Amino acid sequence: MTAAGVERPAVSIITGYLGSGKTTLLNRLLRAPALANTAVIINEFGEIALDHLLVAAPSENMVLLANGCICCAVRGDLVGTLGELAEKRKRGDTPPFDRILIETTGLADPVPVLQTLITDPEVGPRYRLDAVLTLVDGVHGAAQLDAHREAIKQAALADRLLITKCDLAPGESITALERRLAALNPGAQRYRIARGEIAPEDLFGVALEDCGTKNLTRWLQPEAYLAAGAHRGRYLGKGRHDDGIDAFSVHLDRPVTRAGLVTWLHLLASLRGANLLRMKGLLNVEGRPVTVHAVQTLIDEPVALERWPDEERRSRLVFITRDMARADIERTLDALGFDAGGPQESGAFDPRAYERFVAVAKNFR
Fold it and tell me: Is the pLDDT reported for residue 177 higher than 50?
């Protein structure tokens, strides 16, 4: 709980390549009554056509919108902007807000924003990550995916994929684009929209704590990854690999050890994190259900659940990778069974434990 007496505001990222319709979506969302208590952070204020909504400027960096929302322009440090918002909220110097929307530039890589929200010691305790919303132009999206690595990465990292301008593009083109996106990012829910029209409730409540144990499979989406793998070549077309992106799921029949999970996550992030766009998992850790989430080199702290969401007791992991095949991941999975041995005296060196560690670590190279 925060000092204001409400839970940490949820933060969602709106991204997408140039001209994909981020401004149109943002304007629509800000008119929805459900988003009345929302703060907006944009990269450069002049890029967003919100002039008709502006009524006052509480500070150099913040503008009060006509609907009562706070709009902030990031001209420097995102951490500083989030910190300033949190302090003003705590003191009651701004209208109350329970959600933040961060709109990135069209060329932006979403990972630095995710890094700030997940790992920054000033930001993490004050906010919680909800959804990455990626817009893909229904008219030009296929060509942008062909030509720009940024567009592919934005799509691969999304929790929600919004295909825009569906009123302007031929139906068969939209269907082909949707299939390509399904192969790139099977776990993201996809929506066809026009003029930014979409129900806000379809976009938010994506985070694990919002889904809850009962709806954990909605967060994980393992079946979608299996289906995408079966049809990937047909969806992408002959010879197309979309910049080395691959998406797949892995199941493990045997429980993993606590030491193995820590070892595997550490080695995965440090040695293969550049190739790991996103990973989610529900693991059987010595009989207990534990969730994991990673974005490139950033590993969220594993969360132990009170109960299993279903009768399944196998570990389930889903991956979106770049230039790292399923076989590369499978070679690392032995580390999940790593046994550090019995308790040692503080500072004692156990050569047998070290040998076991070296044996599993070599599979990450």
Answer: yes
Q: Give the tens place of pLDDT for each residue, 120-153.
A: 898 989 999 999 999 999 999 999 999 999 999 9
99 - beta bridge partners? Answer: 10, 38
| Residue 165 confidence (pLDDT) above 90 | yes
What's the burial of 236, exposed, middle or buried (CB within 10 Å: 0-12/13-18/19+)? middle
Instruction: Determine the distance from the C-alpha atom of residue 149 to the mean position of all C-alpha atoms in its chain, rounded to a whole number.
Output: 17
Distance CA 332, CA 256 (A): 13
Give the number of other Cβ atoms within 10 Å of residue 46's Cβ. 9
Handedness of CA 245, 247, 253, 254 (dihedral sign): positive
Q: What is the pTM of this model?
A: 0.85
- As a whole number of Å, the end-to-end CA separation of the chain is 42
**Does residue 24 sit in helix, strand or coil?**
helix
- CA–CA distance, 224 with 100 (Å, rounded to integer): 29
Instruction: Give 198's contacts (C-beta < 8 A, 6+ positions apart).
Output: 25, 28, 162, 191
Please give the structure tokens belonging to residue 272.
């293969």
Name the β-bridge partners of 298. 295
Q: Which amino acid is at 117?
A: L
DSSP string, 291-352: EEEEETTEEPPPEE-SS-SSS--SEEEEEEEES--HHHHHHHGGGGG----S---TT---HH
Distance in angstroms (rounded) separating the CA atoms of residues 22 and 234: 30
Alpha-carbon separation of residue 197 from 22, 32, 160, 274, 340 (angstroms): 12, 10, 14, 35, 54
CA dist., res. 8 & res. 295, Å (int): 21
